[in-house]
């Protein structure tokens, strides 16, 4: 998310949690000048320490496809499950596949669950 004000323009990094009632809540945020590998490393090191994600087993991280972030997650949380936000898939999808029906089918597929065998 790009944030701008009279005095500052930059990026707002956020970490959002989901509780047992499927409600979202803010865990951490930082205002930075830009997104890059070093900034993501700093932010995720602090987040990992705060949340005590020592081995990252059982942790699921959902992100956009920001390249610096993808690599840092692999380094910092090698045992976590990493998924991409459907919103970003849809933004790419709709460029080539227009129409309400395809939109509804894609979001329906994203919301469906598949039992692992």
UniProtKB/TrEMBL annotation:
What protein am I looking at?
MULE transposase domain-containing protein
MULE transposase domain boundaries: 7-92
Stored Pfam families: MULE (PF10551)
Specify the domain of life of the species encoding this protein. Eukaryota
Organism annotation: Dipteronia sinensis
